[in-house]
Amino acid sequence: MFDLPSGLHDVRQRLLARPDALMLELGTGGELLVAQLRAWLSLSMLALPLANVLTGGKLGETLVGLLGVVLAIVMSQVWLALARSRGRYRWLTWATSTYDISLTTLVLALLAIESPATGLNSMVVWVFYLVAICLTTLRNDGRLTLFTGLLALAQYAGLALVVALASPPDRLVSVDYGTVTAANQLQRLMLIMLMTAVAAAVVYRMQRLVDMSGTDGLTGLPNRTWLVHRFPAMLGDIRASGTSLSACLIDLDYFKRINDEVGHLAGDRALRHVVDVLREHVQDDECLARLGGEEFAFLMRQPIGRAWERLEAMRRAVASRPFLPEPGHDPMRLTFSAGIASWPQDGADLSALLRCADARLHQAKREGRNRVMARDA
Questions:
Q1: Domains (ranges, CATH) in the chain?
Q2: Which of 377, 347, 351, 342 is nearest to 362 (CA)?
């Protein structure tokens, strides 16, 4: 009745898989937001040791808390500076999450030196484990969420075990923080596990939503949204490697007649047929996206001359493989026209490149269709 095993299998696969280009691009923006939140939270935490003093807290606790807050403020500015170089440091999300968890553990350990009961029963400091796990949802990486949750679980379990074994029973009791018991420590570990599960579910849901917003439902290709978000990172890689980039616009010729003659369902199958042929020529580091209707964009890491040769071969491949709308129906020959623009000669960004490619595409249409244009008339 319920397909729970297969559903859980899909969740596990998505959470453990490396996010695609769009998710990673969105994650860099999330890391910057987390860095800004961390900087703001670090400054606001100055109120905690002050409140401890005003409410009659112990001097040792206040000094430990103040030391932790000062360290948090300094490091938050370092992480913020690194996060502003969006996408440059792929390790940054892992480093900052490890830092968030480890700083919480360090402050609890320092509190435990002064008072074991305070270190293990302090809710104000301990709750930052949950905050750190929650913040991983803004990075859109299930692996990071699970890693952060497991790290918090391991560090706090280790801290609790060491402090409990090394402390005499009378030091595990505090008037302010109560008695440290196995039950309340297990409850905290369970809460960490619960928050990790909730955060992972949020990441999974976000990945599903991004998949739906960035993927064309008919062909399974990336759509315009995906392309717009992905292009800056691709262009950054091109600049760093010194390679070429050509942007191509592809438009099927006389496609309206297919819908008129054999219906829209057959038209949809014709689009999938063309996409299947085109995909055979797309390499791993290239991007074929559907912009809408019968129009596609194709980004190649090739100079314009080589791009023309590649696209011309694709045009011939599509023309040589007729589409069969229905059994018994006459095969229909499909062709496309295309225009190519080269970075940076024809444009410095995606919109400029597509405008130039579109002008050459219309030139190919005017000159009789079923051709690829890489130069202005």
A1: 4-214 (no CATH), 224-373 (3.30.70.270)
A2: 377
